[in-house]
Amino acid sequence: MKIYDVTVPISKDMVVYPGDPPITIQRKQTIGKNGAQCNLSRYSFGSHSGTHIDPPFHFIENGITVDKIPLELLLGRARVVEITAACIDEAALEEFDFTPDARVLFKTRNSYLWSQHKFVEDFVYITPGAARVLVNNGIKVVGIDYLSVEKFGAEEPETHKILLGAGTIIIEGLDLREVEPADYDMVCLPWNIKDGDGAPARDILKQ
Amino acid sequence: MKIYDVTVPISKDMVVYPGDPPITIQRKQTIGKNGAQCNLSRYSFGSHSGTHIDPPFHFIENGITVDKIPLELLLGRARVVEITAACIDEAALEEFDFTPDARVLFKTRNSYLWSQHKFVEDFVYITPGAARVLVNNGIKVVGIDYLSVEKFGAEEPETHKILLGAGTIIIEGLDLREVEPADYDMVCLPWNIKDGDGAPARDILKQ
Predict the structure, then answer these.
(1) What is the side-by-side strand order in the sheet with A24-29?
(2) What is the dihedral of CA A63, B30, A6, A202, to 10 degrees?
(3) Closest C-alpha among B118, B149, B107, B124 to residue B14
(4) How many C-beta neighbours within 10 Å does residue A11 have?
(5) For chain A, what percent of residues have pLDDT higher than 70?
(6) CB within 8 Å of chain B, chain A residues 19-78
(7) What is the pLDDT of residues B68-88, one digit of tens each?
(8) Residue A10 is nearest to which of B31, B157, B191, comparing CB atoms?
(9) Which helix (H) or strand (E) holds A190?
(10) Which residues of chain B neighbour A187 with C-beta distances below 8 Å?
(11) DSSP string of B55-82?
(12) ipTM of the complex
């Protein structure tokens, strides 16, 4: 069995969504300095940094928080679908039959943006129309390989609201460069933050 | 299949190890306030908060960091062993044959300390002698159900150094209240922090 780690490593240099809190990593103790016996740090970051989960509560006032997501939703068969178009719209989805799927991860050219040190606004997003198709097909988990499913600068967060409003869980910030389109056994575990509107997650695909 | 989440939920009220950075959770955006369309927060915490991983680098200068832990080590059969003694010493381990095991999680009265709102110094720890027994038995992952494997106030962090020095990964801060002593299929995924001396983890046991 091969394990693919589709999680972006967290570092202070990594890209965050514009307006989100910065990522800071401060070493508080270093072995041998000032008598310290161990290395110990303080981490600070926004709830939607790196590879992370959007629970419904991110955009839906009475939606469930990240700690309330049934873990079964995030464990099991996941389908990686490659989209080469500039956005994921209804036309881009036409060639796929999602009938047997509950979890779909979109691999796009976004994955290659992780090698850039600046946020790129022109990322591949999911249109509201495509979000409706996914929900209507019973998709419960949607993953994408950059920091939002929404078009950058969209006036209304329609895609988020359609997906999260239907109870679909969003995984943002995946790195799918190493992964071929296929079915995998996914294990995606978010940090268990009480009442959290989002949480970093570690996501692995097994095949 | 039943899934046991043996992770402690993270909240600003949770207990941290004395001297560690506090946990702060700040809501930065709230739906409908100041024109915000979503809920978004900033989290800040020490690298050894809640349920977390100690990689060798925590106490060993040239040890591997948390992002370098082979995930295979943290995935697979794990044995939950119940210890009723006040510490885990060589005598407490005598009744067990660890020959077939690579991952051992100790369930002790510690698990019940999570219901207390103050740090308890008198927790069940692993003695250096017992740490040597575990290493000599080829145990690669050792878990415990409070915030340290080391006796509180120990002059030297011998237990940590014996385990981590042998490359054994430590999981601290488990909550094993709901779990019976038995073998489980474990999935423990730490947050992927570049060069991290520790990281929160989500740990589930399947049976």
Answers:
(1) A24-29, A40-46, B40-46, B24-29
(2) -80
(3) B118
(4) 15
(5) 100
(6) 20-21, 25, 27-28, 31-32, 37-48, 50-51, 57-59, 61, 67, 71-72, 75
(7) 999 999 999 999 999 999 999
(8) B191
(9) strand A183-190
(10) 187, 189
(11) -GGGT-TTSPPGGGS-GGGGEEEEEEEE
(12) 0.95
B138: tokens are 């080829």
* Min distance B133 CA to chain A CA atoms (Å): 23
8 A C-beta contact, residue A120 and residue A153? no
Burial class (CB in 10 A: 0-12, 13-18, 19+), A119: middle
Question: Rounded to whole angstroms, how far apart are CA atoms B141 and B62?
Answer: 19
d(CA A199, CA A177) in angstroms, rounded, equals 22
Q: Give the span between the Cα atoms of A44 and B193, in whole angstroms.
A: 12
How many Cα atoms within 13 Å fall on the side-chain side of residue A116? 13
In 3-state terms chain A splits into helix, strand, coil percentages (rounded to 5) of 20, 30, 50
- Per-residue pLDDT tens over the stretch B3-45: 999 999 999 999 999 999 999 999 999 999 999 999 999 999 9
Helix (H) or strand (E) holding B132: helix B128-136
**Nearest Cβ partner of B38 from A28, A51, A157?**
A157
Q: pTM for the full model?
A: 0.97
What is the C-alpha end-to-end distance of chain A, expressed in Å?
A: 6
Span B145-189, pLDDT tens digits: 999 999 999 999 999 999 999 999 999 999 999 999 999 999 999
Strand positions, DSSP E, B68-182:
75-82, 103-107, 141-144, 169-172
Strand partners, B169: B141
| SS3 (DSSP) at A91 | helix
> Backbone dihedral region of A186: left (phi > 0), alpha (psi from -120 to 50 degrees) or beta?
beta
Q: β-pairing, A75-82 with A103-107?
A: parallel
Look-up of token digits 């693919």:
A4
